[in-house]
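Table S5 (text form). Sequence records supplied for joint modeling of the two-component complex.
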Amino acid sequence: MIRTEELLLNVGPQHPSTHGVLRIVVKLDGEVIKEATPVIGYLHRGTEKLAESLNYTQIIPYTDRMDYLSAMTNNYVLCYAVEKMMGIEVPERAQFLRLIVMELQRIASHLVWWGTYLLDLGALSPFLFAFKDREKIVDLFNELCGARLTYNYMRVGGVKWDAPPGWIDKVRDFIPYMEKQLQDYDRLVTGNEIFLNRVKGIGKYDAETAIAWGLSGVNLRCTGVKWDLRKDEPYCIYDRFEFDVPVGKNGDCYDRYLLRIEEIRQSLRILKQAVEQFPSSGETMGKVPRVIRPPEGETYVRIEAPRGELGCHIVSKGKAEPYRLKFRRPSFNNLQMLPKLLVGETMSNLIAILGGVDIVLGEVDC
Amino acid sequence: MTKWLEQPLSWENALFFTAMAVVFLLIVLLYVVYAILFERKVLGWMQWRHGPNRLGPWGMFQTVADVLKLLFKEDTIPRKADRALFIIAPALCYAPSFAVLAVIPYTRELYFADLNVAVVYYAALSAISTIAIVLGGWASNNKYSLLGGMRSGAQMISYEVPLVLSIVGTVMMTGSMNLRKIVEAQGDWFWQWNFLPQIIGFGVFLVAAVSELNRSPFDLPEAESELVAGYHTEYSGFRFAFFMLAEYVYMFAIAGLASVLFLGGWRPPAPFLDFIPGIVWMILKMAFVIFFLFWLRATMPRVRIDQLMGFAWKVLLPLAILNVFVTAVGLELFIKG
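The corresponding structure-token record, covering 703 residues in total, follows.
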């Protein structure tokens, strides 16, 4: 008599496709997943607790390290929250610089996703193409603030460094280059039969489920819900630019793939307008008191990070340090749904679904 | 070579063949070293980077250094592994890969065995490597290895069927399973080679061959993003090198087989190019097939395991059978009738 038993498999924390130190304990029957339990916390650094003994300017570098693929948006959400509490006016030029770096960051982040996702699916070359193109953005940031990953660029009231001469022209040159590259990406991957078979109809859920689980960003929009904070609750100066919010309809991995590619196009569209309207001169720092002491009270702001809705909740007792600081990290919320999505799928689909969610473990564990 | 092969077994020719085998083994090892370099270079060019270029001119010694590193590495065997099987698996995987090379005719004169059932011999021996991979996966006592080994077993058994069936058309056209006769039967001009009348068979053969080789896009047994390193997760040092070696030697064998069966073997593409020796054409054709495999690796994502099995049974097998049928009808109508 042949007896079969379930196989308990530990995927991670050291596994090539968990994008960092995520661990998923899966129960396998053959290759079919019966149960999946994500175990998180391997990269927990206690950012929120540490922040309680730091002043606001000192917290900014810590936000860099949350979603390390999108440090600019993290910088922004903290500065935005403090500015909102204190009613600080940010100068025009600083607003433009913030917007440009945030959109460049979105492109860079989606490029990393594109490359690593296809690497997960077994295609080698896209990874190198994506990183080569991301390199151009990283070089731009390097020129702007001297760092390539953790920028520490924004400050409460503005940005730390003004754009060096010629920098805006470089951004302008980058836009048509990237548009051309995107066509190549499409030609290489999007129509590939094997790729379509791997992602179409995989990891499907509907709008109701997505909302119930608190998904945001592309993970929500792929189900057809048109929800983009840049449009629905404009922050910075997003209300001045024209762009579309692409939505999917099937809610599968393929829709999420198409949306991210389309979002790169839309970001380029925003950049194109922003570069044209960029003020030729002006301050980059607003009027900020020497010591930043937000008035007693609390505030919550949220922005559209590449991975979804990034929120920042500050409770202030009128001191230079926050009483409590809480980040709503989109990766963390998006990851919650994983155990539900994985049941009944195979090992290969686990990789496709996990990659499709687009998580950054620095942000999940914070 | 014919002269030697036709002699009865004596001390003299036994020694001769042993010496030839050693020389050939060295040539194959040299090929593996440079095939790996070539693969990395090709991948590099296709991915906007240089590939190895530090050690020696054009990175020539990079793989040599890699092999040396593997030699000096500590030989680890997991404590709970099945020792005997764990040790025997890499050798068992490699030995048949070298043995199948014997039946491939490299030129009109240069071949190591003139077998009348060469095609069957190839299929039978290469199946032994599958057993070795399943063994290695099982003996490692690692769950990823086990999954990789099982996948490999399933995949290779499924793809052997269309692989062999795709060759049947060629065999029917020639009326022989002897690889030398198959080459001889192909015409002088390149459009008279088997790949045109057997275009379906050639296509099925290539796809099934890529899968037999466990290479991208069918590299499921070692799908690194899913199974870490598949069946050789626990192997290190020279035992790992043996698996690697077997993979590249099989690539050599498949390239040889494809050239012989479909691309006219040692024949030049046109009769007036006869002054170039046959071995050069054979090497060029094999290099082309090997390049094709590298090219696939640079462009394709990986197939999913269930889709892979479905593809073998639902697409490749019917196509191969259709090819046999069409060939039979064609032969009856146009050649014999």
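Note: Chain A has a mean pLDDT of 88.
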